Every structure is written in C-alpha cells, then in structure tokens.
Amino acid sequence: MIKALIVDDEYLVRLGLRKTIAWERLGIEIVGEAEDGQTGLEEALKHRPEIIITDIKMPFLDGIEMMKQVKDSRLDVSFIVLSGYGDFEYAKGAIRYGAAEYLLKPVENDKLEEVLERVVGRIAGERTVARLGKEKVYANLVAVLKTVRMRKTKSASPLIDQAVAYIHGHYAEELSIAAIAEQLHISPSYLMHLFKEDMHCTVVDYVTEYRIGQAKRFLKERTYKIYEVSAMVGYQDHRYFGQLFKKATGLTPREFVKSTLYE
C-alpha cells in the first residue's frame, strides 16, 4: 500500500476525503491527517507518506511553506494540492516544490481519483525500477562470488580441464554426464567424483551455471528472443530455462533484459 497524508484546515473536507474516495481500490492507506501546515509537517516526518494531499491557505504554516520544509527534509513525496485559490503565484509555488497536480475546490471525486491513479502508477513504476536495481546488484554480487569461488577451486586435474573445455564447446547441445565421461574415456561415476572433489560442485550445476552465464551475455545483446536464447544455450523448453534462470539470478529473463536497458 502507498501511504498518504491529508492536510486541510477544514474538518469537513478532511472527513469527506476520508469517506468518499476509494482509497483501498487505489492501493492507498491514509496514515494521518492534520488541520494546519505545522501539524502536517510533523505528521509527514512521523509517517513518511509517499503522497500528501494538502490545502494552501492554512494557519501557522501554509501549504507552500509546508511543502518546502518537507522537501528540505529529503522526503520523497508527491503533493496533490487542493485549493480554493486559483492565484497564479500559489500554483507556481506549488509546482516549484513538486506538486503533481493543483486542483481547485470543490474537487470532484472522479477527478481526484483520476489524479491519484496517475500518481500511484508513477510511484509503483519507481518502486519496480528500484527493486530491479537492487536485485541486479545482488545478482552481480552472487556472480562475482561464484567466479571467485571457481577461480579458487580451479582444478589442476587434466581430466577436469578437458571436461570443462568440452562443456564450454558443447553447452548449446544436449549434454549428459555420460556423454562427457565418454569423451574422457572414464566412467560417469568417476567424472562426478572428480568434479565434486576438485570443483566443489556437481557436473550438472557447473553446466547450468555456464549456460546461464552465456544466456545473460546473449540477452544483453537484445538481438534474440528469449526462446531463441533458451535454445542457444541448450534448453529446448524455454519455460524450464526461465525457471533455471530465475533460480540462478533472482530475475526472469524478461526482467533481466529490462535491468540492462540503461547499461
């Protein structure tokens, strides 16, 4: 839910907003209300709302000054201004401090809900971008740690080196432990034992990790469709590929592509 605060010196206006707007449908929770700008500022610092619906002309601290002090406090707030004053200076001051909309009273519920839907949509979009950014940082950190681990545990065994080279050269094909072992003229069980002992992972885990790494490289190019990338790294079932990709990176292939758009 997105938190909102109502600031207006008219009790009936505050009551009317609380009772007549479809807050829950809009995904908004009213966390407080205030009858003047000074109290509104205190409530904003206390509850840290994402939306403040405010009047302009109020005692102690007017709406414009309250908006300025909220912004000075570095709160990320979208203001919706409801005012009985159509004066250009008021509107200019409201816009200066980030008002998403300046509406003249009396405000029709449909109009206010339309504005709220727009503001909620923008906030939701910003949250998604922020979440993807955090997930991307986490995925990159995991990838770095895995690379470090792989380097530290790189095998001195020629057999493992041959197995790794074979996997790198045939990852786009159907790979099985038996097929890799056959290339090395050893048994599948001995291959699995060598991998576990020298690489500290299973053959399947290594193949999957390498394929996902290659898939990320192809997806970053944004040349191929996701099902094409799936096939290019050895997975004919793109849904199964999507599951493995999300397990490895924390993102679906589509989310991963979006996260690389600004690189």
From TrEMBL:
Domain Response regulatory, residue spans: 3-120
SUPFAM superfamilies linked: CheY-like, Homeodomain-like
Localization in the cell: Cytoplasm
Major localization class: cytoplasm
Gene3D superfamilies according to UniProt: 3.40.50.2300, Homeodomain-like
Keywords noted in UniProt: Cytoplasm, DNA-binding, Phosphoprotein, Transcription, Transcription regulation, Two-component regulatory system
Superkingdom in the source lineage: Bacteria
Heme in keyword set: no
Chain ranges passing through the membrane: none
Residue ranges constituting the HTH araC/xylS-type domain according to the UniProt record: 161-259
Residues the record lists as 4-aspartylphosphate modifications: D55
Keyword Hydrolase: no
PANTHER family: HISTIDINE KINASE-RELATED, TRANSCRIPTIONAL REGULATORY PROTEIN HPTR
Name assigned to this protein: Response regulator
